[in-house]
Design a protein that fits this description.
- The structure is a single chain.
- Helix 3 runs parallel beside helix 5, helix 8 packs across helix 9 and helix 10 packs across helix 11.
- Strands 2, 3, 6, 13, 14 and 15 form a six-stranded parallel beta sheet that branches.
- The two termini are about 20 Å apart.
- This protein has one domain: Glycoside hydrolase/deacetylase (TIM Barrel).
- The longest helix has 19 residues.
- It has about 400 residues and is of the alpha/beta class.
- Helix 9 links the parallel strand 9 and strand 10.
- It is globular and about 60 Å long.
- Zinc ion binds next to strand 2.
């Protein structure tokens, strides 16, 4: 199919990447950090406070891990909404496929970081009854779409370097890990992001081979956990370079997600990955914006033929240390209702659907086949080529 698209669009390495516009309003919701543990609820919170870490200064001090109830409540809200084809709204969840195996790493005297994959379960004293079933239920209902975030969120190399140096930073890590919290980013940006080490002596993106190993391991864990391979990926911290993109494409990933900024049109890169760019941040845990602001941003996207891609991190659905979930569900519910009322032609889609639309002119869901006319930025409608309606 991709050859077909390449031919159709005359895409190739010598041709500058050109973006795609869509004839119908497409709404995507992309959400990061699912499956990644943080502060271990009230017990972990008290333990960290007692160890001298003054938690409570930033929303991310209250980042825990979603519960089965959080996930079910999100699924129910999405399922109450319908687009013009009768399909419910869908949240793409970017999963972190492993957590630190705290007991094992401690037994090894922090010489090396041991990981526990989601398929093996949560580490140490972390408990989330029914959580994995709740993910699967939503995926089965078509309201969640799992995608790849990483194996870890932080840069393992950076953490191991700090542990070996054994100064304040290493000691902060040990304090956190005793309480079974991997890190709190804003307190320690030197922990970096999975593919990007922020500090000397090895600052910068990891070499190609190291990235490929991490991404292959993450994709394998993903496939084990979800019984399907990832189609879309988003690098932790959006820190990806061309080696990251190449490694994704080698693992069969077709769509690369990018953080919000200018609302760029979807486009292919040199590895034939379709790049999507987020256009609206809905992050009630950080700041509240009125509905009109979100609608204005969506209107702008649709007027330009660009999909509206919402970014909303998992923290916004957490509830055990603070109820982030309630305000977020209300904001999203309101936003989706307003879109449905204003855009009778609205389509709720996920990254895999957009890939199908771009390469085939249509996608399929449980409500049948849906055709969408796609244009290159330069102009020329191509719907006739697919015989689309
Ligand atoms: Zn993330």
């Amino acid at each position: 199919m991709l050859n077909f698209a390449r031919k159709l669009w005359n895409l190739g390495k010598d041709v500058p990447a050109q973006g795609f516009s869509f004839s119908r309003p497409l709404l995507l919701i992309q959400s990061d950090d699912w499956g990644r543990v943080g502060v271990r609820d009230r017990e972990g919170y008290e333990q960290l406070r007692a160890s001298g870490i003054p938690l409570g200064q930033n929303p991310y001090d209250l980042y825990t891990l979603e519960t089965a109830e959080d996930v079910a409540a999100l699924g129910e809200m999405l399922n109450r909404h319908r687009d013009s084809t009768g399909r419910p709204a869908c949240v793409l969840m970017n999963f972190v496929l492993a957590n630190i195996d705290f007991p094992k790493t401690r037994r090894n005297n922090y010489q090396q970081i041991h990981l526990r994959t989601l398929a093996e379960g949560l580490p140490g004293n972390w408990k989330r009854p029914g959580l994995f079933e709740a993910y699967r239920q939503g995926i089965g209902d078509g309201v969640f779409y799992p995608a790849l975030h990483g194996l870890t969120h932080f840069c393992k190399q950076a953490a191991e370097y700090q542990l070996a140096k054994n100064d304040e930073r290493g000691s902060l890590l040990r304090t956190l890990w005793k309480a079974e919290t991997p890190y709190i980013y804003w307190r320690m940006p030197w922990i970096g992001y999975e593919y990007c080490n922020p500090e000397p002596p090895k600052a910068g993106f990891l070499p190609a081979e190291a990235q490929q190993e991490l991404i292959a391991a993450a994709a394998e864990s993903f496939t084990k956990f979800f019984a399907r391979a990832p189609v879309s990926a988003c690098a932790p911290g959006y820190r990806a370079d061309r080696e990251t993109h190449l490694a994704w494409s080698k693992c069969g990933v077709r769509v690369a997600q990018n953080g919000s900024g200018s609302p760029l049109h979807p486009h292919f890169d040199e590895w034939e990955l379709l790049h999507l760019h987020r256009t609206i941040d809905i992050e009630p845990s950080q700041r509240d914006l009125p509905l009109e602001k979100y609608m204005q941003l969506a209107d702008d996207c649709f007027a330009r033929g660009v999909p509206t891609i919402v970014s909303v991190h998992a923290i916004n659905f957490h509830s055990t240390l603070k109820d982030f979930r309630g305000p977020t569900l209300r904001a999203l519910d309101e936003f989706l209702s307003a879109l449905e009322a204003k855009y009778p032609n609205l389509l709720y889609v996920h990254d895999g659907d957009v890939y199908d639309i771009v390469t085939r002119g249509k996608f399929e869901n449980s409500h049948g086949k849906v055709s969408v006319t796609v244009q290159q930025n330069a102009g020329k409608a191509r719907s006739a080529a697919w015989g689309a309606k």
